[in-house]
Amino acid sequence: MAKTSGRGGRVRGWLRSRRVFARREPRGGGRRRWWLGGLLMLALAGWFGLFHEDPTDVAERRRNPLPGVLSAGPGEVRVVDGDTLRLGGVTVRLAGLDAPERGQECQRADGARFDCGEAAARQLATLVGRRAVTCDTQGRDRYGRAIATCRAEGVDLAEAMVASGWAVAVAEGGRGQARYGLAEAQARSGLWGLWEGRFQTPESWRRGN
Q: What is the dihedral of CA 171, 172, 173, 176, to 10 degrees?
């Protein structure tokens, strides 16, 4: 009886071991499952990026022929603000400068407050006038606007805006030397435009709103 019991115990143990082995993952199964899960997550991320993107941004990118050259004839350019133009259906952000936003208040030398964003837009409109404008595009910003160096009959509009004191020079890419640093230094020393009185930099003003 003891011998039979022992054999039965060994059989039951063998069956239990078979059931255990049957539940184990096959070799590499965990890695394959992780890999498939990763692919699924990537597919979902792509789906959300494709179907939940802002339609305005998509349309803007389709209209912008980047990289390349944009041009508009006299009277075909619209000034959006002190550093942004519309050439046909394309919104262009001037590279290398930052101008006050419409509604931003600055202070004149006599203490009077005024909308310096509106003043900057008027200055850019004066520089553009009814001249033909050509823009060399360099990419897009996070809003889908073309970033470009634009000239009105040979005049670099960004440099002219900074030199007049109605925009500040910025380092491209957020580092390095500002392309229009010398123009800004001349405007500052001459107390032209914004430098006549007191103002927040456009970036600082945007952070406060």
A: -50
Q: How far apart (Å, rounded) are the C-alpha atoms in residues 87 and 97?
A: 19
The per-residue pLDDT for 123 is 97
pLDDT along the chain (209 residues), means of 10: 47 45 46 56 48 48 64 94 93 96 94 96 96 94 92 96 96 75 96 95 85
d(CA 157, CA 154): 9
**The amino acid at 188:** R
- Tokens in use for 76? 């075909």
Say what the pLDDT of residue 112 is. Answer: 96
**Residues 6+ away with beta carbon under 8 Å from 118:** 102
CATH for 58-207? 2.40.50.90
Buried b (16+ CB within 10 A) or exposed e, 7-41: eeeeeeeeeeeeeeeeeeeeeeeeeeeeeeeeeee
Residues present in the chain in total: 209
Question: Residue 111 gets which letter from DSSP?
Answer: S
Residue type, 100: P
The structure tokens 């936003």 sit at: 101
Torsion of CA 145, 151, 157, 163, to 10 degrees: 140
